[in-house]
UniProtKB/TrEMBL annotation:
Domain of life the protein comes from: Eukaryota
KW Transferase (keyword) present: yes
Protein name from the UniProt record: Methyltransferase-like protein
Keywords on record: Methyltransferase, Transferase
Transmembrane regions: none
Pfam families linked: Methyltransf_23 (PF13489)
Length: 180
């Protein structure tokens, strides 16, 4: 079963409806939390993932983080990854792709846009971080994940109309939560 949802993992916790009643209680989340104050007390209907006697904590099969971490400040990346790992079941996969060092985007930033080590601020106020393999490896290893794949993905794209060449560099990784 596939149930996508949108959230800002750098500022929010996973929604209560993701957890079964047993986990809501054990996590201190009452069933009444399904009443969303932003909807003026109107109960939102959400899919029920598990039966009453099943526990869902640590129950997601996989998580995708595609151009996600680069957009948040580096200092909260470890906490963000840990939150994702906390809902990943043992043996579950975290799939990662983000900007790599010397991507054309990094090379276009002006010196005054640099706000940290490999971290830049776009004109709209959003962040861009450019990863090395070692940085990714350390972030995910510190969160308890096992590296299955980690590599640079380099793509040369040519706009035939204007003859411009774009050299893209991304970091691609696949990580696994070890069995208990």
């Amino acid at each position: 079963m596939f149930h996508p949802f949108l959230m800002d993992v750098s500022k929010e916790t996973f929604p209560d409806w993701l957890f079964c009643k047993a986990c809501q209680t054990s996590l201190g989340k009452a069933a009444a939390s399904l009443l969303d104050p932003s909807h003026h007390g109107i109960r939102e209907e959400h899919p029920v993932f598990l039966g009453e006697n099943q526990c869902c904590a640590g129950g997601m099969d996989f998580i995708t983080m595609i151009f996600t971490l680069s957009a948040i400040p580096f200092d909260i990346m470890p906490t963000t990854i840990e939150q994702c790992v906390s809902v990943l079941k043992p043996g579950g996969l975290l799939l990662f792709r983000d900007y790599g060092l010397y991507d054309m985007t990094m090379l276009r930033f002006l010196p005054h846009q640099r706000v940290g080590f490999r971290e830049y601020m776009r004109s709209d106020g959003t962040f861009s971080y450019f990863f090395s393999l070692d940085t990714v490896r350390e972030l995910f290893r510190a969160a308890g994940l096992v590296e299955l794949e980690l590599e640079y993905c380099c793509v040369k794209s040519v706009n035939r109309k204007n003859g411009k060449t774009m050299r893209r560099v991304w970091v691609h990784g696949k990580f696994k939560k070890p069995p208990r």
